[in-house]
Design a protein that fits this description.
Layout: E1 8-13, E2 19-20, E3 36-42, H1 76-82, E4 91-96, H2 102-115, H3 120-129, E5 174-178, H4 183-193, E6 200-204, H5 208-218, E7 222-226, H6 243-260, E8 263-268, H7 281-285, E9 288-293, E10 300-308, E11 316-322, E12 325-328, E13 347-354, E14 357-369, E15 377-380, H8 384-397, E16 405-411, H9 423-435, E17 443-445, E18 448-449, E19 455-456, H10 461-470, E20 475-479, E21 505-509, H11 512-521
Parallel strand pairs: 4-8, 4-9, 5-6, 5-7, 7-8, 15-16, 17-20, 20-21
Antiparallel strand pairs: 1-2, 1-3, 9-10, 10-11, 11-12, 13-14, 14-16, 18-19
Helix pairs in contact: 8-9, 9-11
């Protein structure tokens, strides 16, 4: 008689969900210490046979995509990142540090979504997905026998709603689930930002079954869950926020979103390292992953997409955290520049590409005599390793020594510049502060600095120069070869790409030494 196979114990990392057959002190995936605990017994794999299918397979050209068209949120900067708006049935994960403004932003989005729908057909489609079409169900609003709530009287608009979004449209119900705050606290915030609408429903819940019950009752087109780490279920072991709980909650919300055509937005916490708390599987399950960034001491907020199944992942949305809420910034470049009458040594302007959007930003440097055995190197808004490399190149290739001086480098407006195209502007700012010589206020610098002292071409130079010319800059220092087409032929001044900066004088350089010479002699 064959001996029955015994179940083996498994161990799982509480941070990332990595599994192993024996206990280890350090996770083999995320390298965290003391997070591997026993997860139970692993059952032998069973053979699964073919079963019934939910829908027949179709040639890809016959798949109907009309019901999955994106709908604008009403915030143009958010729509830019999402690829046009929110898609029915999509699950979006928005992560950010505490106090950055995630709840405020989503409360505004929920209020806008509850007062505007692209068309009555959209509302009818959602009602059909929820089983309320043709009067077969009951909606959350009186008189909504077809599942489509009635139009708000007077076409009332929200205070921060763009003028293009204030036209009369068919409102749709939106459900906001808060697990971190009470309903009264969220209401106070809604009063402050003017997000009070008749079709925005609010519930304070931390149990998954209660959340699903609210979805069944309200039948919304958009659900906001703030946050997924606070929602748990009694069906699985563990406290809310654990790996197993997050996986189970996310799987159920995704199932409901796909079955009913509901857009679900999940708020996610981040760890002190900046990663999304919970299993990595969560980022794989959702359709869109957004990061909400910004300095807590600055009004500027930015949203980046690191995953987007419905649009680009190289876009950036900029917002201003004002007293009336979070407002989109279609032209944020002015926030990163200092307005002054006379140029000051140690400053240089550059243009960085955040996704496909050029942003004009200022780099500032201060070089002062040090009274310490080891001079200080302090940075803010720039990569510390890149700053150290540029200082070494200045000392070795340009003979600008700073071994007895403190160096402080910063950006204006709290913006973080991670592109290598900032290297040249950083070098010019540090050199100007060292020799106490200022650059022209109408000059910008672009280029990556190499260890041999060369200045390398960076992508998108024409787009960067066009943005600088639009803001009134007259001179630019760029790597040689920047003003060439892909085939190596030079760009002509009549080219449409250059028409926006015809009056700009562009100086091409090969090395950092040459860039220093032409920059400090420019008018």
């Amino acid at each position: 008689m064959a001996k029955a196979k015994t179940a083996k114990a498994t161990y799982r990392c509480s941070d990332c969900g990595w599994q192993t057959s024996k206990w280890v002190g350090r996770c083999g995936e995320c390298q965290a210490w003391g997070t591997v605990t026993e997860a139970g017994s692993a059952t032998p794999a069973r053979v699964v046979t073919a079963g019934a299918v939910s829908a027949p397979a179709l040639p890809i050209g016959q798949v109907d995509v009309r019901s999955s068209q994106s709908r604008p949120t009403g915030l143009d900067e958010l729509d830019r990142v999402l690829g046009g708006g929110i898609v029915p049935g999509a699950v979006v994960l928005l992560a950010g540090e505490p106090g950055i403004g995630k709840s405020t932003l989503l409360l505004e989005v929920a209020a806008l979504a509850s007062t505007a729908s692209d068309s009555a057909a959209d509302a009818q489609r959602f009602a059909s997905a929820n089983g309320t079409a043709n009067g077969t169900g009951t909606g959350p609003a009186d008189g909504a026998a077809t599942g489509v709530p009635q139009q708000r009287g007077g076409g009332e608009s929200l205070p921060w709603q763009p003028a293009s979004e204030q036209e009369d449209r068919t409102p749709t119900p939106v459900l906001y689930i808060t697990g971190e705050e009470s309903a009264e606290q969220v209401r106070l915030r809604a009063d402050r930002v003017g997000a009070i609408t008749d079709d925005l429903y609010l519930a304070a819940e931390t149990e998954l079954s209660a959340v699903l019950g609210h979805i069944e009752t309200v039948r919304p087109t958009l659900v906001v869950v703030d946050s997924i780490q606070t929602i748990g279920t009694s069906e699985v072991d563990g406290a809310p926020g654990g790996v197993t709980q997050i996986r189970e909650v996310a799987a159920n919300l995704i199932r409901v979103a796909k079955e009913r055509g509901i857009t679900v937005v999940l708020v996610g916490h981040v760890t002190k390292e900046g990663a999304i708390a919970g299993p990595r599987l969560l980022e794989h399950l959702v359709d869109v992953v957004l990061y909400f960034e910004g300095d807590r001491h600055s009004r500027l907020r930015m949203i980046r997409a690191v995953k987007n199944r419905y649009g680009p992942t190289d876009e950036l949305g900029c917002f201003d955290l004002s007293e009336v809420g979070i407002v989109g910034l279609p032209d944020p470049s002015g926030l990163f520049l200092t307005r002054r009458d006379e140029p000051v040594p140690g400053t240089c302007v550059t243009v960085t590409l955040e996704g496909r959007r050029p942003l004009v930003a200022e780099v500032q440097a201060l070089v002062a005599k040090s009274h310490l055995p080891a001079p200080r190197r302090a940075t803010s808004g720039l990569d510390t390793s890149r700053v150290s490399m540029v200082l070494a190149v200045l000392a070795q290739r340009c003979k600008i020594s700073m071994h007895e001086q403190d160096v402080y480098v910063s950006t204006v407006g709290g913006v973080r510049l991670s592109e290598t195209s900032v290297d040249l502007a950083l070098a010019l700012a540090v050199a100007g502060s060292t020799v106490e010589q200022s650059l022209s206020s109408s000059l910008i610098a672009l280029g990556e600095v190499g260890l041999a002292g060369e200045v390398r071409v960076v992508p998108g130079v024409q787009r960067r120069l066009a943005e600088a010319a639009r803001l009134g800059f007259k001179h630019a220092v760029v790597p040689r070869g920047s003003l060439e087409l892909a085939d190596g032929s030079p760009l002509k001044r009549a080219d449409p790409q250059l028409s926006s900066y015809e009056g700009m004088k562009v100086m091409e350089v090969d090395s950092l030494q040459q860039a220093l010479q032409v920059s400090f002699t420019a008018p």
